[in-house]
Design a protein that fits this description.
Order of helices and strands: HHEEEE
Helix content: 25-40%
Shape: elongated
Largest sheet: 4 strands, antiparallel
Structural class: alpha+beta
Distance between the termini: 54 Å
Radius of gyration: 18 Å
Number of strands: 4
Strand content: 25-35%
Number of helices: 2
Low-confidence stretches: 12-18
Strand order of the largest sheet: 1-2-3-4
Length: 98
Amino acid sequence: MKFKPVLLAALLVVPLTLAGCSAVASKTNTLSDERILSETSGVLGMSPSDLTLLERRTEGVNTYVTLKAKSGKTYACTVNGGNLLSFGMTNPPVCNAR
């Protein structure tokens, strides 16, 4: 019976801690537009100069971008990392045609 208060406290603290980490990641994002274009262009097999950044938003550890290629195609990409929690490193972006 003594474990119930501890379990309840843990269930309340863990989501708050995770929300705090997410806020830190969002506020310490260091990804410049140029870096986003450089990393996403490699995944798409294009030159950064072939892409235009239309929109970007950061939520937690992910940065979501919409790109337009010179060919007219539009891509939605997710870049994971680039913040204090990942020491500025990123995973390879994931891009899909829209």
